[in-house]
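User: My collaborator sent over this chain with a note saying "see what the structure looks like." That's all I know about it. Can you take a look?
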Amino acid sequence: MVFGQVVVGPPGSGKTTYCNGMSQFLTLIGRKVAVINLDPANDALPYECAVNIEDLIKLEDVMAEHGLGPNGGLVYCMDYLEKNIDWLQSKLEPLAKDHYFLFDFPGQVELFTLHSNAKNIILEMTRKMDYRLAAVHLVDSHLCSDPGKYISALLLSLTTMLHLELPHINVLSKMDLIESYGKLAFNLEFYTDVQDLSYLQQYLDQDPRSAKYRKLTKALCEVIEDFSLVSFATLDIQFFFLQTVRTRRVLGILLSLSIKQMDMCLLVLKEILLSLAKLQLGPWTGIITDILLNFAYDMHIRYMLFVIFKIIFLLCSAKLSFLIAEVTTAAVQEKYMKDDDD
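Assistant: Without extra context I'll predict from the sequence alone. Here is the result:
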């Protein structure tokens, strides 16, 4: 059974950066991953591309031959890919046995709100090819700094969710930059949980342009609240990946030690295991930690201990990284809540 992510979102929301960071993270934890670039306008790929739509059709050729602009050219490319879905299937079949897929889609929002070509391509993969896919919709966190833009992002997220009909998660990306956009009107939880949108109205009324469309804005907010589907996770993909790399480097140093060197780092290992138990990753953590420490004084068991510790790490590394990301988000949220109190 094949699993994967359909990565979508407006231009500049960080889709390619997300695919690059996520592919490296999955590789670090031992998963085989294949990134499929379906954006013909993406000519600077930071990741190793397993399948590239430019091998089928090029945006520059379409624009030159048919006299289309960038948006019209992208729609044409998606239509062409839909008509030649067998090409995509033939490229994916050799990878489907043991790879996790990341599909990097174009950023033009009309492809996921007005046109059916991208949706039909995804339906072919989920129904005909029997892939288990989830949509990851990225939205730049700077939109939270402007109430009008935030409502637009909510409406876009809702429309995309209804259009794609996939298991779906909305993500506020570039959280490391959110402080540079200025002070938010509310704490971060207000924006991630999509709480009572009527509180935004007083800020919208301060802008003469927004005040003119007060009734329209109110109606749009009511539509979003009536569906009650949209919420956001937060992500700084660069920090997420960096912490994973650092943790794996520490593990690599430990596993390269000789038997004699193991004697010197036994106390350090004990502290690591005790810290692992305190993270409360599961009821089994404390039991395994106790067993490992009880047998740590036998030389042969010590060597096995490092092997077992590696297995534990591989099982827990994803959880550890998400815990780090949650702590970072909580720190940002605490800062805004403190500013509100002041």
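A starting point for your reply to your collaborator: DSSP finds 15 helices and seven strands in the chain.
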